[in-house]
Amino acid sequence: MSGLDKLARPAQDDRPAGREWPLYEVFVRGKRGLNHVHVGSLHAADDEMAVRHARDVYTRRNEGVSIWVVRSDAITASSPDEKDPLFAPAGDKVYRHPTFYDIPDDVPHM
């Protein structure tokens, strides 16, 4: 087999037969942004590959300054059906809301 034939063939991956790579959620912080924003998902063999693929797919035009990747199976989230019982208790604690405090003008992004 020639060197050219080797280049034309797809690389073998490390997946066991019949199994997909784990799914990762990708978050990117833009140049002007303060927060990481969910931009999409991808499959990768490991964390390092997920970061590299996320960079290649989601920051091709230098949109970001930081990338987070998180395995989807590591995320625990509330259900929209639990909205009322989960978030309602905070509504009666008005002292937790910043409406009673003066925020100085020189404090950015509050």
What does this structure look like?
InterPro entries: PaaB, PaaB_sf. By secondary structure, the protein is of the alpha+beta class. It has one domain: Ubiquitin-like (UB roll), CATH 3.10.20.520. Helices cover 21% and strands 22% of the residues. The protein has a 3-stranded antiparallel beta sheet, covered by helices on one side. A hairpin with a 5-residue loop joins strand 1 and strand 2. The longest helix is centred in the middle third of the chain and has 12 residues. The protein starts with a helix and ends in a 23-residue tail after the last helix. The N terminus is likely disordered.
Descriptive tags:
110 residues; alpha+beta; Ubiquitin-like (UB roll); 3-stranded antiparallel sheet; 3 helices; flat
Overall tally of domains = 1
State Rg.
22 Å
Low-confidence stretches: 1-11
CATH architectural arrangement? Roll
Number of strands: 3
Globally, the shape reads flat
The CATH superfamily label reads Phenylacetic acid degradation B
Fraction of residues in β-strands: 15-25%
Largest sheet: 3 strands, antiparallel
Name of the CATH class: Alpha Beta
Offer a quick outline of the entry.
The protein has three helices and three strands. By secondary structure, the chain is α+β, with helices and mostly antiparallel strands.
Q: In terms of topology, how is this protein built?
A:
Blueprint: H1 3-8, E1 23-30, E2 36-43, H2 47-58, E3 64-71, H3 83-87
Antiparallel strand pairs: 1-2, 1-3
